[in-house]
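Example is below:
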Amino acid sequence: SNAVVLENVKETVKECILIMLVENISGLSEDDGDFSVEMIPELRAAVVTFTGNTDTGEFAKKLNQNHRAKQQNITARCLELTKSIKAENIPPNTPSDYITIYFENKRNGGAQVMDVQQLPDEDAAIITFSDHKGSA
């Protein structure tokens, strides 16, 4: 995987601080498109996605040893590849066949859908693909 999850990210930690931390540890530049950061405040986490051939295991190891990350209690681990995604904002009463065909359409990824588990209370669904490339 080309992604690393940063965990224990306090609500007070701004995205720009994480970007600078990643830049300091990796020697890469967010401005140059070497990586991107997606904040996930409800999980107190962030995902760093690298665009090049970065050794994510080595980056996670360096971040976990970094004194600034330790001060903030931020930890890193490689994001494991998954075959499932959660799709949100699905209108009520949407047939699962429609969801399957939507995600199998080339414009929307074109991956083979193995299963659709609808979560009507959340207007969402968990879509499982035949391989991890569909969930990218």
